[in-house]
Specification:
By secondary structure, this protein is mainly alpha-helical. It has one domain: Glycerol uptake facilitator protein (Up-down Bundle). A two-stranded antiparallel ribbon has the order 1-2. A hairpin with a 5-residue loop joins strand 1 and strand 2. About 7% of the residues have low confidence.
Amino acid sequence: MSPRKITNILLTEFVGTFVLALAFMSMLVRTNFSFFSALAAALVYGLFIVVFGSKIVAHLNPAVTIGLWTARKINTISAFLYVVLQVAAGYSALRVGQYFLNTTLAKTATGGFDYRVMIAEGLGALVFSLALAAALNHSDRELPLSEKAMLVGFGLFVGVVVASLAGTGIINPAVAISLKSFSWAYVLGPIVGAIVGFNLYETLLVKNFKVGNLLTTDGTVFSTKPVSTKSAAKKVASKTKKK
């Protein structure tokens, strides 16, 4: 993969998370009602899926990245880069949002550990990760891009609404940073929920589900298509003959 392609992938992750956090903040600060923030987040996520299609898999959420990493759909170096950019985007959104709002956001989460919030965030992330895994598992031919965007957006909307029963309803640690709602409950809840969701989908529904093209450690594109031993042997034989 060319350096330009790698840069585009990483830039997309930063910009996407930044826009998602700003949209979430815009609705939540003005209305203080999770319904509208959930709707805004769903629209942003669906927009990025339609814009980039299957060319770039945008996570926009550290919990999603870590969940896919535990399911072995993304390698460690890529996961680390994604999370770093997502956290940086969340902090940048906080600064930019405060500038536009012309005020300093009040800290809405304490450093304590609230089990109710953590469990609610985990359940919301579980719902979202199941919807995301189902959408990413299909190719564009099997599931139209518009339907894929609707599936992921609706999953995120329902996940945020479920999580809002006990707290703000974020299910995204990077967005939590932008809202000054960063606490262990808003970090561990979504991460555990996403880990359970992606691995549960693969265990109970689809073995070795595909997630599209992901950046790998050697700079190549990780192919999720299964390769038979016969086709692999033919490729090795053809290379040997050429030599």
